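Quick one, probably user error.
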């Protein structure tokens, strides 16, 4: 029985190797569109390239250098894409010489060097920008950091639906133009954004990356959502791919992942949940080649060591920071989570940490930040700003009375005034300018 299992494991690993080699070779024949230029007019009807640039200016997508770190174990530390609050799901990604630094750019089209993702298919993302507004985006397909087709929404916008015309005008030519390296069919993309959140959903009946020797998948979907109820913010990412084939052979029957982050004004309500599974890896079912793939065990490593390792359920999250990162190796503030259901690497090394290429199927991630609470009075005071009073119910030292009607406790009026607090008048014996009479009986001079 052990010999049978080892042979099955070897066959599955060889198929995995062919997948990665096929995808890497495919990178050399892809046609990359020209990048958009500065000065883009973001009004009116936009081309996909203009839409991407307007939605994600360079200053908004670069990750914070202060938070970036090089992971000593990048194969089991999937990258977060940006540090702003967001939920994101991705059907498939191909990288060549993937960057080991974390986190990556928030650009849904794959960003730029050094953390560029060569091919991105089916990425749904809902996010909250630095100015507090919400934004939704779906990258249907992107090559070399340039989006071929996408859907974008700002507050008050809803876009999407079946893309029959786009299938004929864009996706079919894309498939033919890349020698069948990037092919999608029966695509649906729906994005809706309001003042309190964004929901984004992608699905396709069939996805092919890398041609005959690459990945060929059946039904695929992704979701990237974020919302706030004023007290808590919740971000969710999810992705699912069925019937994943590699080089004409079944690689997995069902691959799925999801993450949810909840951050509240009451930190005790914060939550982080990451789940994923790979059913039927290698076409042999559980427990071959690794039982942890199907049952969702985080960071299950299988495949051929160094030559073509496979990682199921790659996970990095906080709370629950991946210990492989070492002290201080968190990608952003708590709570956040990243889960990649199935990663296939080629020529992975530990010194330095990295690999020649990486193919990801069914990735999800999320990060939430608690909404700001109502303005509060300083410590030791109560009420609602600007009407703050000492919370002891007593006037401050040196004063008497009942807040907010506090007067000097000396029983004397302030310097320059006479009378008994709180009935103090100027001590000159004269009424203030513009008034007449004798203090404290002063009236406007026009009334005498």
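Nope, works fine. Designed sequence:
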């Amino acid at each position: 029985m052990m010999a049978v299992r080892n042979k099955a494991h070897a066959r599955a690993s060889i198929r995995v190797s062919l997948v990665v080699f096929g995808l890497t070779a495919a990178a050399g024949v892809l046609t990359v569109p020209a990048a958009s230029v500065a000065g883009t007019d973001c009004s009116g009807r936009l081309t996909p390239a203009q839409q991407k640039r307007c939605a994600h200016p360079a200053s908004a997508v670069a990750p914070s250098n202060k938070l970036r770190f090089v992971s000593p174990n990048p194969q089991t530390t999937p990258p977060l894409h940006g540090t702003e609050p967001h939920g994101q799901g991705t059907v498939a990604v191909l990288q060549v010489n993937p960057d080991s630094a974390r986190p990556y750019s928030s650009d849904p089209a794959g960003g730029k060097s050094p953390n560029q993702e060569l091919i991105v298919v089916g990425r749904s993302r809902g996010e909250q920008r630095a100015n507090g507004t919400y934004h939704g985006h779906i990258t249907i397909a992107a090559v070399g950091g340039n989006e071929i087709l996408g859907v974008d929404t700002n507050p008050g916008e809803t876009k999407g639906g079946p893309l029959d015309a786009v299938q004929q005008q864009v996706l079919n030519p894309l498939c033919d133009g890349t020698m069948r390296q990037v092919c999608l069919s029966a695509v649906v993309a729906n994005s809706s954004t309001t003042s309190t959140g964004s929901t984004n959903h992608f699905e396709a009946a069939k996805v092919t990356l890398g041609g005959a020797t690459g990945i060929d998948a059946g039904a695929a979907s992704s979701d990237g959502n974020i919302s706030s109820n004023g007290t808590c913010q919740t971000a969710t990412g999810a992705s699912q791919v069925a019937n994943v084939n590699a080089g004409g052979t079944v690689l997995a029957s069902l691959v799925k992942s999801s993450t949810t982050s909840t951050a509240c004004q009451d930190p005790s309500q914060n939550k982080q949940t990451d789940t994923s599974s790979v059913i039927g890896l290698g076409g042999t079912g559980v427990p071959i080649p690794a039982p942890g793939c199907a049952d969702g065990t985080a960071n299950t490593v299988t495949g051929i060591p160094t030559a073509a390792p496979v990682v199921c359920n790659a996970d990095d999250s906080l709370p629950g920071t991946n210990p492989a990162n070492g002290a201080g190796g968190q990608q952003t503030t708590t709570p956040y989570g990243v889960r990649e259901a199935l990663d296939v690497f080629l020529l992975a090394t530990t010194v330095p940490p990295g690999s020649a290429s990486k193919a990801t199927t069914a990735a999800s991630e999320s990060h939430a930040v608690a909404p700001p609470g109502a303005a509060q009075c300083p410590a030791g005071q109560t009420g609602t700003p600007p009407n703050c009073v000492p919370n002891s119910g007593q006037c401050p030292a040196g004063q008497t009375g009942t807040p907010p009607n506090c007067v000097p406790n000396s029983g004397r009026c302030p310097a320059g005034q006479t009378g008994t607090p709180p009935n103090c008048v100027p001590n000159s014996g004269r009424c203030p300018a513009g008034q007449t009479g004798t203090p404290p009986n002063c009236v406007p001079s026009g009334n005498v």
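Residues 1-48, 50-65, 284-288 have pLDDT under 50 and may be disordered.
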